[in-house]
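Practice problem: predict the structure.
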Amino acid sequence: VQLVESGGGLVQAGGSLRLSCAASGFTVEDYAIGWFRQAPGKEREGVSCISSSGDRTDYAASVKGRFTMSSDNAKNTVYLRMNSLKPEDTAVYYCAAVGGCSSWPPNIAYRGQGTQVTVSS
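Answer:
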């Protein structure tokens, strides 16, 4: 089982990024997938979650309305589109196969290594 994130980088406040999470060893239809982030000195935060069927997405209050999560079953990849980025969004973002989106933050089964997102003011 492997999850590999990509798409992070440096962006100015107000800009956008799209993170990708490529899964292997399982299909994204088998698990709900969550995005998490962790900034230096801060606890891990659940950002978003998409159900295994893809028909339900949940977001942390801090990103609701700015971030959109989607999945492409054909590519076995999940995406996180981040708009209107703020300096406080700066963190390492990683995706994880989770037990479901009903609990928050979702319980992690497998996780990737993460990708750095830095938002400058």
